[in-house]
Amino acid sequence: MTSVAIADASCLIALHQITALDMSSLKNRVFRLSGKNYQSGSCVKTRFLTFQSIYVPPAVMQEIRTVRPRPDWVIVQPLQQPLSADVLRASLGAGESQVIGLAIELTLTKRDMVVILDDLPARRLAEGLGLFVLGTLGILMLAKRRGVISVLRPLLDLLRNHDFRIADNLYEQVLKGSGEW
Predict the structure, then answer these.
(1) Residue 50 has what pLDDT?
(2) Reduced to 3 states, what is the DSSP secondary structure of residue 134?
(3) Are 123 and 151 in contact (CB under 8 A)?
(4) Could you report the per-residue pLDDT of 21-44, keeping only the tens digit for each?
(5) Cβ atoms of residues 51 and 29 within 8 Å
(6) CA 152 to CA 3: how far, in whole Å?
(7) Which of 33, 66, 96, 123 lies at a 20 to 30 A Cα distance from 43?
(8) How far out from the chain centre does Cα 36 lie?
(9) Taking a C-beta distance cutoff of 8 angstroms, is the pair 99, 57 a contact?
(10) What predicted TM-score, i.e. pTM, was given to this entire model?
(11) What local confidence, expressed as pLDDT, does residue 68 receive?
């Protein structure tokens, strides 16, 4: 199935900082994704996706203004509706709030979507709203599985050196999941 991704700034900035991955290399490649759907308990759902477009709301575009040149595959998509009460109550940053708001809007027209968020409260809210969430580490794991990159450990270390917070247990879990532990 064809999918769109709606990305928050953290993933785009992190990957740009470590120059690990041009996300356009993920475009039009088929991935098998598994993730928790918190609305239905701990059940795992699997999707086969091809990223056709990566959307960012205006707040994220503002946050990634330092990423130059701006990738032509990033589509700025303004929200058409005000943010929902659930999103406003969560007190998230502008980027995370708009990503979730845009994802809610686009679920009405686009069936398969991945929301790329790293912030844990934002991820939990998005998952609670039934959205399929992936983070920067998930993108890197996908890239390794598809042969876009060969190893994760040096990239995770680079991310940490750029102040990207990765808990020790998550670091270990990602390396185990990618066969590098």
Answers:
(1) 55
(2) strand
(3) no
(4) 455 555 554 444 444 333 333 333
(5) yes
(6) 25
(7) 96
(8) 14
(9) yes
(10) 0.81
(11) 67
CA 68 from chain centre, in angstroms, equals 20
Tokens of 7: 């990305």
Please report which residue ranges of the chain form alpha helices under DSSP H: 9-18, 58-63, 85-89, 94-106, 120-128, 136-145, 153-161, 168-177
| Closest CA relative to residue 16, chosen from 27, 5, 28, 24 | 24
Radius of gyration of the chain (CA): 15
For residue 98, give both structure tokens. Answer: 């708009």
What is the full DSSP assignment across 84-124? PHHHHHTT--HHHHHHHHHHHHHTTT-SSEEEE---HHHHH
Phi first, then psi: give them for residue 58, nearest 5 degrees: -55, -40
3-class DSSP state of 39: helix
Q: Pairing between strand 30-36 and 133-134?
A: unpaired
